[in-house]
C-alpha cells in the first residue's frame, strides 16, 4: 500500500468542496497546488474521503472486536477521535477481552445479518408518508456530468434546464418535450495557442429575462455568455481568480459578477467589456444582487455589505453588523428591503433609510447558507399574498419568516443534513428545499406541511422551479440532475 501527499490533499480538497466550504477549498487548492497534480477528479467518486475514513474506522473496530482465537466480541461503536488514539484503542481491546471471558457470548449475528452493534449511521432517514413520495415515474434523472453538479436554473420562458458542474462544463437539458437532449457547454481556456478544458468548476449560472442568453461563472476566473443553442457568444475576462456569483439585471443589458479577487464587476452584455469594477471589499466577494437595472448590493467574507451604483466611485451605503462572513444577499421583489445571511447564524434585514438593520433574526443554530424571498406582495404577480422570506441552514432546518413582523412562522424540520438550497414556486404557495441528505422536499407555505418528497442518489446542492411551477429541477453531488414532474 502506498499513497502520496498529492492524493491526500486532493481528497481533502474534494471533501471541503462537497461540504460547502468552497472558499476554504479554493485557498487549500492553491496552497497545495491541486491544479498541478495529475489526478483525474472526474474518476473520483463523491464522499471519497469519508468513505475511506469510515473503512479505517471499521477496520479499527474489527481489530478490537475480533479476539486472538478468531471469535467476535460485542463492542460499542468507536468514535473517530477515539479510533486515532492508541491508548484508547488498546484499553478498548483489553476491556473487550475481559468482557468476552466473563460472558463467553457467541458472535453478534442474527440470521447471518450483523446485529445491533454493527457500525451504523445513527441519523436514521426521516420516515416520510408513502403518499407524499414522488413516484419514480414522475422523476427524470439526467446523466452526463462527470462530477458534482453545483447549480441548476430553469430558462424563464420555456423548459430548458441549465446545470453547472465540477467537470468544467455547463449543460442545457431540453425538457420541453421530455426528450432530455443535452447541449454540453465546455469551458475552455487558451494554452499555447490552442483551446484546452479549464478543468475548473462551473459554480454560477443565470438566464437573462427573455431566456435568450445564459451566463456562467467559473473557478477559471472567466464569465461566459452562451446562446440557447450552446454556442459561446462572449468570454468576459477581468477577474483575477474564481467567480463566486453572477446575475443579469432585469433589462438584460448588464451582468454583475463577484470574485475571490475582492471585486465586483458590471459587464456590458452586448460587447462583453467591463463597464465598471468595484473594489470596496477587503476580502473575497461572495454574492451580488441587483436592486435596479443600475444599482446592486454585494457581500463578502469581510462581514460587510455594500450598496453600489453604476457610475459612482463610492458605495451608496455600507451595512455592518454581521460578525462572520456574509454568505448571501437578496433584495425583496420591490427592491426596498435587503436580506442577508451569515456564518454568524443570523439573518438580517436592511433598509437604505437607516444605518442599523431593521430586523436581526436569530433562530438557526448553525451557519445560514442561503435565503430567498417569495414572489408575493406588492409589485409581483401575486400582490395579495403576504411577503415571506425563507432561510436554509447547516442546522438541517428551513425557516419561513414574516418579515413585516420579524417573526418565524414555520420551522421545516424533515431534513437530516445541511440544507443548501430553497426555491419558491411561481405562485408563492410552495417551497422546494434540497439537502445533503439526498432529499428534495416540497412544503406548503400556508401550513408548513410537507406535501411531496423525493430521495435521490446524491446530496442536493440546488433546487429550482420552472416558470409554470409544475417541474422542480435539482442538482446533486453524484453528478446527476433530476427533474420532478409535479403535475397531478
Features:
488 residues; four-stranded antiparallel sheet; 5 helices; mainly beta
Question: Could you walk me through the main structural features you see in this protein, from its secondary elements to its overall organization?
Answer:
This protein has 488 residues and is mainly beta. It has five helices and 36 strands. A four-stranded antiparallel β-sheet has the order 3-36-35-34, with no helix packed on it. Strands 4-5-6-7 form a four-stranded antiparallel β-sheet, with no helix packed on it. A four-stranded antiparallel β-sheet has the order 10-11-12-13, with no helix packed on it. The radius of gyration is 24 Å and the shape is globular. The N and C termini lie far apart (55 Å). The model is unreliable at 101-128 (pLDDT under 50).
Amino acid at each position: 500500500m502506498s499513497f502520496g501527499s498529492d492524493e491526500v490533499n486532493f481528497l481533502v480538497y474534494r471533501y471541503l468542496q462537497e461540504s460547502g466550504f468552497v472558499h476554504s477549498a479554493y485557498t487549500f487548492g492553491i496552497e497545495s497546488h491541486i491544479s498541478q497534480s495529475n489526478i483525474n477528479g472526474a474518476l473520483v467518486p463523491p464522499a471519497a474521503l469519508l468513505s475511506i475514513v469510515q473503512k479505517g474506522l471499521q477496520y479499527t473496530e474489527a481489530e478490537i472486536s475480533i479476539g486472538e482465537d478468531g471469535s467476535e466480541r460485542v463492542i460499542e461503536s468507536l468514535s473517530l477521535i477515539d479510533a486515532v488514539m492508541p491508548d484508547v484503542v488498546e484499553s478498548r481491546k483489553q476491556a473487550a477481552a475481559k468482557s468476552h471471558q466473563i460472558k463467553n457470548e457467541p458472535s453478534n449475528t442474527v440470521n447471518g445479518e450483523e446485529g445491533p452493534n454493527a457500525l451504523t449511521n445513527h441519523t436514521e432517514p426521516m420516515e416520510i408518508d408513502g403518499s407524499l413520495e414522488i413516484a419514480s415515474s414522475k422523476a427524470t434523472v439526467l446523466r452526463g456530468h462527470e462530477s458534482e453538479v453545483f447549480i441548476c436554473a430553469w430558462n424563464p420562458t420555456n423548459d430548458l434546464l441549465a446545470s453547472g458542474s465540477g467537470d468544467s462544463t455547463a449543460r442545457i437539458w431540453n425538457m420541453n418535450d421530455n426528450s432530455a437532449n443535452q447541449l454540453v457547454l465546455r469551458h475552455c481556456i487558451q494554452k499555447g495557442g490552442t483551446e484546452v478544458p479549464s478543468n475548473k468548476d462551473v459554480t454560477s449560472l443565470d438566464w437573462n429575462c427573455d431566456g435568450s442568453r445564459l451566463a456562467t461563472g467559473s473557478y477559471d476566473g472567466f464569465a461566459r455568455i452562451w446562446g440557447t443553442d450552446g454556442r459561446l457568444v462572449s468570454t468576459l475576462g477581468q477577474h483575477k481568480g474564481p467567480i463566486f456569483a453572477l446575475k443579469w439585471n432585469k433589462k438584460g443589458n448588464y451582468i454583475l459578477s463577484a470574485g475571490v479577487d475582492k471585486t465586483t464587476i458590471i459587464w456590458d452584455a452586448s460587447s462583453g467589456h467591463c463597464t465598471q469594477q468595484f473594489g470596496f471589499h477587503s476580502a473575497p466577494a461572495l454574492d451580488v444582487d441587483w436592486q435596479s437595472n443600475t444599482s446592486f448590493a454585494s457581500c463578502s467574507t469581510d462581514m460587510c455589505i455594500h450598496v453600489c451604483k453604476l457610475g459612482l466611485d463610492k458605495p451608496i451605503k455600507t451595512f455592518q453588523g454581521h460578525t462572520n462572513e456574509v454568505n448571501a444577499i437578496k433584495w425583496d421583489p420591490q427592491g426596498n428591503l435587503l436580506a442577508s445571511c451569515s456564518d454568524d447564524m443570523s439573518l438580517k434585514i436592511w433598509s437604505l433609510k437607516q444605518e442599523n438593520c431593521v430586523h436581526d433574526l436569530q433562530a438557526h443554530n448553525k451557519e445560514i447558507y442561503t435565503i430567498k424571498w417569495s414572489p408575493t406582495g406588492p409589485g409581483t404577480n401575486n400582490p395579495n399574498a403576504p411577503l415571506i422570506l425563507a432561510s436554509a441552514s447547516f442546522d438541517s432546518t428551513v425557516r419561513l419568516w414574516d418579515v413585516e413582523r420579524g417573526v418565524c412562522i414555520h420551522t421545516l424540520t424533515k431534513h437530516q443534513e445541511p440544507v443548501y438550497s430553497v426555491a419558491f414556486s411561481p405562485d408563492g404557495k410552495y417551497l422546494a428545499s434540497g439537502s445533503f441528505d439526498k432529499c428534495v422536499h416540497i412544503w406548503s407555505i400556508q401550513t408548513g406541511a410537507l406535501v411531496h418528497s423525493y430521495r435521490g442518489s446524491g446530496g442536493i446542492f440546488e433546487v429550482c422551479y420552472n416558470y409554470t411551477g409544475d417541474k422542480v429541477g435539482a442538482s446533486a453531488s453524484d453528478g446527476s440532475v433530476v427533474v420532478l414532474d409535479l403535475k397531478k
